[in-house]
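User: Can you recover a sequence for this backbone? Please restate the input before giving your answer.

Assistant: Of course. Working from this structure:
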């Protein structure tokens, strides 16, 4: 039988943080009550460290993706997915124990096209709190969030997956497309806030707790532009790991 969920983890050189995510995944699978109902796919984006080995040791399926764009990594994992529902989580995050239970509940309403769980930060500071507060109104208004992003596999295919021409902001574009599809059926995006993932503060650790405000002018255009820049290379594609 096909699994109910395919959890897809895009990963590039994540040997340090991937093990803690996979431990949280194992716990969430156990809470769901049927381990085999959740397959885990690590979309290895040409890592040069032990990422693929760690994934294999934890019993994950591995999808090797050569194109160094996160959208391609997500899509590569989705192409390998056998589950009815595809879920996406960043490799530096951790799952809430009730993740699959709560996503099931949201989809069972019939009013949900997909959505996300949202996150709680692994640490707080004034700079991180103000950054979070700046983003929250957009999240409330659009019902678009981060954390574990999910939808049914046929709906993922219907919107064409993630846009691989975008070096960044592919997650926003994907949820926007999913939102438009849902409107045609009277469905909406849902935020499953009862199962928030633990969000990494890696970017804040690397660039500083106030860096978002220094970079927002340079970073915002990336929501519309499709070309990579020195900014995208510095912030997303050439991390210190």
């Amino acid at each position: 039988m096909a699994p109910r969920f395919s959890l897809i983890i895009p990963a590039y050189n994540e040997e340090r943080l991937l093990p803690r995510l996979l431990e949280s995944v194992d716990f969430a699978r156990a809470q769901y009550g049927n381990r085999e109902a959740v397959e885990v796919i690590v979309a290895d984006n040409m890592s040069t460290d032990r990422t693929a080995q760690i994934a294999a040791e934890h019993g994950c399926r591995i999808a090797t993706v050569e194109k160094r764009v996160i959208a391609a990594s997500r899509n590569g994992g989705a192409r390998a997915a056998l589950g009815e529902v595809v879920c996406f989580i960043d490799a530096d995050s951790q799952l809430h124990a009730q993740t699959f239970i709560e996503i099931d509940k949201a989809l069972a309403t019939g009013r949900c096209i997909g959505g996300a769980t949202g996150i709680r930060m692994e640490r707080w500071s004034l700079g991180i709190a103000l950054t979070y507060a700046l983003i929250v109104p957009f999240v409330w208004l659009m019902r678009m969030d981060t954390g574990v992003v999910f939808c049914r596999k046929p709906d993922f295919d219907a919107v064409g997956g993630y846009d691989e021409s975008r070096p960044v902001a592919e997650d926003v574009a994907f949820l926007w497309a999913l939102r438009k599809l849902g409107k045609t059926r009277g469905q909406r995006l849902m935020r499953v806030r009862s199962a928030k993932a633990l969000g990494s503060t890696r970017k804040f650790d690397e660039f500083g707790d106030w860096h978002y405000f220094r970079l927002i002018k340079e970073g915002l255009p990336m929501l519309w532009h499709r070309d990579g820049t020195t900014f995208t290379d510095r912030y997303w594609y050439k991390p210190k790991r």
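That completes the design. Residues 48 and 161 are 26 Å apart (CA to CA).
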